[in-house]
Amino acid sequence: MKKAIVALLFLSVAAPALAQQEMPLEGRVGKLEKEMKAVQRKVFPGGAQQYFEPEIKPQATPPVAAGLPADTPVADLSRRVDALEKALAGLTGQVEQNSYNLRKLEDQFAKMKGDAEFRLNVLEGKAAPVAGGAPGGASLPYAVPPAPKGPAGGATAAVPAPVPAAAATAAAPSGDAGKDAYMAGYALWEQKKYPEAVAALKAMAAKYPKHKYASYARNLAGRAYLDNGQYNEAIRELFENTKDEAGERAPHSYVYMAQALMKRKPPLPDKACQAYEVLLAKYPDKVTGGLADLVAKGKADAKCK
Questions:
Q1: Domain parsing of the chain, residue ranges
Q2: For residue 155, which phi and psi values (nearest 5 degrees)?
Q3: Conformation bin of residue 48: beta by default, left when phi > 0, alpha when psi is -120 to 50
Q4: What is the pTM of this model?
């Protein structure tokens, strides 16, 4: 009995081996191919398809979001070029802004240079000797000749004439003594009483130097000299008024001073043009309306560049 059982077990184990040996070659090759495909799917789940077509293909990899380190070299280079272009545009804008600021500084420097040259000419005119040994006009853009001598051989007195009482009471009092004094001189100037107007206006400016109308008075006194043909005195008075840069009639004094420079003998067109240049540099916003017309005409008469 035992021998029969052993014989059966032997047959059950040996039978598959014998069957495999007896299996045809084509079947064995097919079996090997299936096993190799199984190994391929296990070891190379995403590759080697050119040799063995897998029965189960791997899932497609989801697209990588832009900006992650997994970008391709071309995308990274493109991003770096964009950054360089933005930086270059920023630098270009900064250079243009710096150029604009530099031009503004150059314009301001040119204005300051013109004003400094004008005042330097004033100092040179103050120090320059004139004929006869008399001192030149103080604070002037050129040396003023001495005042003409009177019939008796002495210099003409420069003492202002007293203000007529009628002129002082011509206008109704406004309650502002400084303004009333200016209006009295203005009334004399309108009447073409130029010496009396000069006396009244200079007295007002001396008595009320901080008053608003002090600048008006000095400017109108210079105009009275100009209208009376006293060009050197006009230049002196008008230039003194330009020293009060905050005065409301300082810009006008540059214009009338330039007119006096052109009317004196000989005329000084270069100095007149310089006066216009300083005016336009210091008061560009105030040269409007009628004052701008006077400047344009004066520059044309002096043939300013």
A1: 131-146+162-302
A2: -70, 145
A3: left
A4: 0.50
